[in-house]
Amino acid sequence: MAESENMFLRAKHRTFSGLTEDAEREWKGPFCFIQAADPQLGLMKAWRDGDCDGGGDEWAEEVELTKQAVEAVNQLRPRPRFMVLCGDLVHAMPDTPFRDGQERDLKAALKGTDPSIPLVFVSGNHDLGNTPTPGTVEQYCNAWGDDYFSFWVGGVLCLVLNSQLFYDASACPQLKEAQETWLEAQLSRASSSSSTEPKPKHVLVFQHIPLYLESPDEEEQYFNLQMVVRQNLLDRFKKAGVKAVFSGHYHRNAGGCHGGLDMVVSSAIGCQLGDDTHGVRVVVVTADGVIHRYHSLDQLRAQGMDEDLRKLLQA
Ligand SMILES: [Zn+2]
Fold first, then answer.
1. For the Calcineurin-like phosphoesterase domain, which residue ranges apply (predicted)?
2. CA dihedral 120, 125, 128, 130 (to 10 degrees)
3. Ligand 1 centre from 110 Cα, in Å?
């Protein structure tokens, strides 16, 4: 355990690994990163068995897929600046039987990630419980790092959020309040420039539950955020100039750009609930925008990222 601990300390720092925050505030040209979601160790067998509430007693398939993702990402040139995992790291809910084994094996699978590609962890409903408590949030933070934080990379401000506090904070209202206060400060910081703080080239958000799957006014359901919460966040994100919100949770690719904000919903490294392949999303950040495409693990391993994305990085 102590050995693998080092890799994960990175996420606990509110600044980016190994680099001073100041150096990363400066735009130095296009770069890419990897966005992935839902390795969710244990869901594939549970889903096949039709027992998603219990089940989850085997997770060798997800371990293998995670290793394939790591291998594919390590090979990419230019190297991704980071890889973010947008929640549901494991399937077993807090304080259930297979939790420790799943967390241990995911950490072991991720250990092969090239040390120059920091890992950024986002908390999902399975990581925190559908109704998180101060206890489950603390467990998550001890295992994976802060549940919300910001970091700069190459002139871009990234906000990692705990979407479970938006979804149901009935058992931890103070934590919700604390994230709200922090978020408000981050968003106003993002939209105002000062002599000491340059304006970010772009602002990106990472959270587990999508604001919406296809359209901002779609009906509420298990896979999106409640209408009032969604509208509130959309308004604030747009006002602060957030360019894109990256999420998972749906186990299918979805999303859409509305009013200048790109809601990106990525399918899973692990269990597919639709027709997508196991994969990750390659995201290219240029001065003008944020371009992204989901790649299957097989495709990424065999051919790397798509040619047109690679060209954008050479500019
Ligand atoms: Zn989820």
1. 70-252
2. 160
3. 20
Tell me how far the alpha carbon of residue 142 lies from the centroid of ligand 1, in angstroms.
Answer: 20
Tokens of 234: 């959309």
CA 74/CA 238 separation, integer angstroms: 34
Q: What's the CA angle centered on 259, arms 255 and 261, to 5 degrees?
A: 50
> How is residue 18 written in tokens?
């190994």
Structure tokens at 89: 């790291």
CA angle at residue 223 from 220 to 224, to 5 degrees? 50
**Whether pTM exceeds 0.90:** yes
Number of domain units in the chain: 1
Distance 125 CA to ligand 1 centre (A): 5
Ligand 1 centroid – CA 30 distance (Å) = 31
104: containing domain:
2-314
- Whole-angstrom Cα distance, residue 159 to residue 189? 12
Instruction: Assign residue 71 the CATH number of its domain.
Output: 3.60.21.10
Q: pLDDT per position in the chain (315 positions), as tens?
A: 233 333 443 444 433 444 456 789 999 999 999 999 999 999 999 999 998 887 789 999 999 999 999 999 999 999 999 999 999 999 999 999 999 999 999 999 999 999 999 999 999 999 999 999 999 999 999 999 999 999 999 999 999 999 999 999 999 999 999 999 999 999 998 888 666 777 999 999 999 999 999 999 999 999 999 999 999 999 999 999 999 999 999 999 999 999 999 999 999 999 999 999 999 999 999 999 999 999 999 999 999 999 999 999 986
Whole-number Å distance, alpha carbon 38 to ligand 1 midpoint, is 7
* Distances from the Cα of 180 to the Cα of 46, 120, 163, 235, angstroms: 35, 21, 11, 14
